[in-house]
Each structure stands twice: as C-alpha cells, then as structure tokens.
Amino acid sequence: MSPAKTGSRREAAASPHRWWILAVVATAQLMVTLDSTIVNIALPSAQADLGFTDGNRTWIVTAYSLAFGSLLLLGGRIADLFGRKLAFLVGVSGFAAASALAGAATSFEMLVAGRALQGVFGALLAPAALSLLTTTFTDAKERAKAFGLYGAVAGSGAAVGLLLGGVLTEYLDWRWTLYVNVVFAAVALVGGWYLLQRGTRETGAKLDIPGTVLVTGGLFAVVYGFSNAESHGWSSALSWGFLAAGALLLAVFTWWQTRAAHPLLPLRVLLDRNRGASFAAMLIISAGMFGVFLFLTYYLQLTLGFSAVETGLAFLPMVISLMIAATLATSLLLPRVGPRTVVGLGMALGAVGMAWLTRLDLTSTYAADVLPALVVSGIGIGLVMAPAMSLATSGVGADDAGVASASVNTMQQIGGSIGTALLNTLAASAATSYLVGRDAADPLVQAQAALDSYATAYWWSAGFFAVGALLTLVLYRRGVPAADADAAPAVHM
Fold this sequence. Notes:
Radius of gyration: 22 Å
CATH topology of the largest domain: Growth Hormone, Chain: A
Distance between the termini: 17 Å
CATH class of the largest domain: Mainly Alpha
CATH architecture of the largest domain: Up-down Bundle
Helix content: over 70%
Order of helices and strands: HHHHHHHHHHHHHHHHHHH
Number of strands: 0
Structural class: mainly alpha
C-alpha cells in the first residue's frame, strides 16, 4: 500500500466525523427501507383518491421493487467507478424528487412513475450508503458497532414504515407517506455534502455494458416473475416464463463475469466462504421476515381490530429488541464466538418466533400471545442481519465495496420478493382449502379461514428460518473471523 493510501486510512480512521457519517448514511438507508412498507397502509386512501382498480393497486408496490431490485448491481458499480459521494448525493436528491412527484400524483400513471423513479434512485443510493460505511470504519471494534447500528436500522425499517405510514395516513394524508421522504433526504443531503470526501473517477475505469444488460434483465425478470405470481398465482405461464428467463440471463451473466475485462460483479466478491454465507443469510431472513410484517398486520387489524396507528405501535417492541440484538451481535458476540453461532442462533430464534405465531386464534390477546413472539422474532432477526451485513462487505477492497454492498441489497430485495409472492400464494390456497365444504357466508368461518391462512404463512416462514439455521452451520467457517487490517481502506471515496 502506498504512503498516500496509508495516510488516507489513518486520517479517515481518526476522523471525528465518522459517527456523523454513520448517522447520515443510516438516515438515507432508513428512508429507502421504510419505503417498502410505508405506502402499503396508504394504498386504500390513494385508491379512493385517484380511482384506480384493485388489480392496478399492486403496481404501486411492484413498480418500486422492480426498478430497485433490477438496478442495484449497476448502482453499486457506478458508486465504485465514479465516486461514492457523488452516487450518494445524486441518489438522495433523485429519491427526494421522485417522492415529491409521487406524492403530488394526480393520476395512477403519475403515481406509478414516481414510485418507479424512487426505485431507480434507491438502487444508486443504497449500495453507495453501505459502501461508504464499509470504507469509513476501518477499526475492527468501531466497525462492529457501526454495522450493529446500521443493521438495526435496515432490519427495523419495514416495521418503522408501518408505524409511520399509519400515523401519516390517519392524521395527515396518504400523500405524506411520500412527502416525508423529502425530510429524510434533506438531512442526508446536507450531511453528505459537508461530511463526505469528494472522490475522483478511477483511471481507465470502464462499465461492463454486456454484464449490465444481462444482470439488469435477469433481476428484472426474477422480481417480476415473483410479483406476477403474487397477483396471478403460480399457475400463470407468465410467472414461470419470467422466472425461467431471469434464471437463464443470470446464468449467462455469471459466465460472462469470468471473461469480461472489467466485470460488473467480480467473482472474487462472491467466492469468500463467509461472504457467500452472509448473502444466503440475507436472502433467507428477508423472505422469512414477511411472515411477520405482512400477515401479522392483517391479524392485528382484521382480527383484533387495531387501527393503523395501533398496528404500527404494536411492532415497536420488535423494533427495540431487534436494535438491541443487532448492536450486541456485532460488537460483543461476533468477535467472541463467530458468525456460525451468532447467525445460527438468530435463525433458530426466528423459527421459534414464527412457530409461536401459529398459535394465534380469535381469542388471543396482544400482551399474552403476540408480544412474546414479536420480541423473540426481533432478537432473532437482529442476530442475523447485522452480522450478515458486516461480513458480506468485510475483507473487500475499496474498489469492490460498492458492488459488494449492492449484492447485499440485492439478496434482501430478491428475498423479500420471494417471501411476499410465495407466502401470499400459500396463504390464499390455505384459506380456499379451509372454506371447502363450509358455509363461506358465515363471518366466523371467514375469520377462521383467515387465521388458517396466516398460520400457514407463519409455518412456512419458520421453515425458511430453520433452513437458514442449517445452511449457517454448513456454510460459515468455524471460529471468529480474522481481522483484515487492509480490508476496505477508506480511499477512493
């Protein structure tokens, strides 16, 4: 390493602004993460205001996830090639503008366009944010604390979105679930402008155009295939056609990365054993989490009669337990017992929490039956997400930090798409099966059918976590990860 680079590292490591940088980056990440759920609660109000159909309603969610999921790797490589500060600031500014556009929508088409643009700029922002964290914190102990806090924000964003969406919709207007992003963006933009170092483009840097086309098309097809399965079922030829096309394109992309002179995703990023295990953990935890956020929301509102605000508040204990577990996981547990034990325990607790929720019935109460399961699940998710995020970006050089960060976000997005589509379809099938031979007009029978569908989703989520626990034992190396003093040096920002 050159003296200049060494000096940069020492300067960055001693910078008094690095914890403020964490606050800025975490604010931006929270904005992106909560947007996956904050609009959901507002959809009925938006539908009544703009007059679109139930069939079109899913596009409000799908437009965001399609653009975000398919462009993440491109966004990560752009951050690596052209500077993380520039990518971060452009991403934050664009996300704010897209949110304002969607909030001011006068038609369904305008709302969908705004949501899609949110996804585009989110795909630039999210990997830049995580890679900035990777390159800013080089001291092992400080890095553990930073990733614990960041993982807590990323893991709790969906639940925070439910709470904030409920409050804004009930007390202001559905449009404020989108306008609120301008407030988050203003904080991140001002902080990023003054605190982040300006970088320069790498000499001779080139973008892998064929790889970009292949992976963007492949990820788009996969996310669309799962989204279509959610709305049209797994019997839809369109769903399977897009999933098959996506798998083929991603296979060709993988082949191309072994031959490209300037690969979009260098395979060295994926081949480290702990890093690959962390990507798998993020995929599984994201799929399983929707068993909590999606179906427990239905249960609280439709069965227990909670309002939108009360539903959001009901998730707060889970958020708190998740944040505490995430912080302890990276700062205390991971350096002592290693990822195999920490992540494995988290997966096991997640499975227990999901199985606990299957016991809910029409006479259950929040305090006695829902709250304990939420706390256990929150601890489990926190023990998985923060270590997985940290190890997924640990040991990569600064030149690959953006694309490694994008890979983490991609696993999270694809996992969420799989979980939403698969669990929705299985739950709907369970409800239909329950009603066979029963009086479907009886409100009690309908309520019991809903409970049966929720329990099916919880059992499958528990299965995801159980599989994750087994994979953790197989994939992660034994022992504590060796600290790499030269990993992710804080240069080229």
